Amino acid sequence: MSIIHCLEDLYPVLSPIEQVIAKYFMDHTEELTAKPILMVAQQCGTSKSAVVRLCKHLGFIGYKDFLTSLSAELALRQKDLLHEYSDIYPDHSVGKICTIITQNHIQALESTLRLIDIAAIERAVEVIGKTSRLDLYGVGNSGIVAEDADLKFRRLGYMTYTAIDKHRMAIGAATLKPGDVVMFFSYYGTTKDILETLEIAKSQGATTIAITCKRDSPLYEKADIVLATASTESLTRSGAMTSRIAMLSVLDMVFTAVSSLNYKRFKKVLDYTAEIVRKERY
């Protein structure tokens, strides 16, 4: 798992002081393991507590814990055991392509798990658990995730409205009301259709949840609840695959938590829908 990649993902939403420290970490990765926290703080013009806060933001207990993981990562990198996101090129064999795609997916899932905000997941689970209407919006590859969410939440008996084009999203958002919840799926968080629909949904008083990657995007800034993923777009758009996988993973987290924490409420409909699907098999 790349710590530096996690730093790059988090960088846009860090405080100015944390950005200074993060840039120092990224610029001095190789020699960082030999530097005490006081030296790092002095060279960044800040305090030891600020350095510790950034380490905790990354999911570590403190600076020592961060250095231990960084040292292990650097050792793996030297042995070519650490996978970074890779692109696909015309001279790659089928076997190589399969390996790269699988490793890119694993990297996206591991990085997303490290960066996920559990408190945001809990808030999303709470509002979804209370709502009587759940709308699901996405465009392109993100629309596929929205449709998967529709299938999942309908199994729990939710009255869902799913849209993957501008007109249906606008119509759906215009009929929302306070207490309703709408989930937006967008890798970049800059899609015009999504952002315009978000404004309509907010004007109607609905709670908005965004599953997105780009932390400096309008969607990230404006949604009520943000479930951030980690992924990297690459030259041949294999990132469009990893971003989809990362969003599906976060969706699965939310769906499973909603169904688990409200198990008594949903058990009967889950059992019934499972039985109906089972009857459709030979």
Specify the overall morphology: globular
Structural class: alpha/beta
Percent in strands? 5-15%
Measured between the Cα atoms of the first and last residue, the distance is 42 Å
Described by strand count, sense and barrel closure, the largest sheet is: 5 strands, parallel
CATH homologous superfamily identity of the largest domain = Glucose-6-phosphate isomerase like protein, domain 1
- CATH fold node name of the largest domain: Rossmann fold
- Placed side by side, the strands forming the largest sheet appear as 2-1-3-4-5
As a percent range, the share of helical residues equals 55-70%
Architecture of the largest domain, according to CATH?
A: 3-Layer(aba) Sandwich
- Helices and strands, in order, run as HHHHHHHHEHEHEHEHEHH
CATH class term of the largest domain: Alpha Beta
Compute the number of helices: 14
Low-pLDDT residue intervals, each spanning 5 or more residues: 235-239
Number-wise, the strands total 5
Integer tally of domains: 2
Provide mean pLDDT, rounded.
86
Alpha carbon gyration radius: 21 Å
